[in-house]
Amino acid sequence: MDDILNAQARDEDDFYKLLGCDELSTTEQINTEFKLKALIAHPDKNPDDPNAAKRFAELQRARDILTDDKRRQEYDFWRRSGIAVPYSSWISMKDAMHTSMHWAVKKKKDLMLEEDPDNLTESPGDSDMNASSCTHTAIPSSCGQSRRFIPASWTREPANDILQKFRNYNL
Predict the structure, then answer these.
(1) What are the alphabetically sorted keywords of the record (predicted)?
(2) What is the pTM of this model?
(3) What is the model's pLDDT at position 65?
C-alpha cells in the first residue's frame, strides 16, 4: 500500500512518449513509430548494452497496449486521471479504482480541425441572415447555430507614396 501512496509518475509509463507519438495517433502511426524505435533499440543491434532487451520489451509492451483498442482506452483513462499510481499497479486493481475515479479523468485532447469547412451547409433559418453581419465576429453562435467555420478575411490598405517607392526600389 505504501508503494501506491508514495508512487511518482514515471517516464516509462508514458507509452506515447516512449514511442514518440501522440494521444491522437492512429494504430498505423503507432506501429510505424514502434518499427523506427525497434530498429534502433533491438538487442541484436546493441549486443554490448545490457539494458537493450529491457528497453525493447518496454517498446513492445507500449505498442501492444496502444494498438489494442480496449487496452488503449483503459490506458488513456489511467493517463488522463493524473494519479501517480504506476500503470501496472493500476491495471491490476482497475475495477476497484474505476468507480472512485469518475471525477478525476480529464477530457481527451481536442482535434485541431473538427469539421471540413467545405461540407458545411446552412439551415433554412440562416438564409435570411446577412452574411456581412458574420464576417467580423469570432463567435460562431452569433451567426447561427449551423455555422461553425467563419473564414477570416482582411483587406490591404492602399500604399502611400513612400511605401510604393520603397517597394519599387526608387528610394
Answers:
(1) Chaperone
(2) 0.54
(3) 94
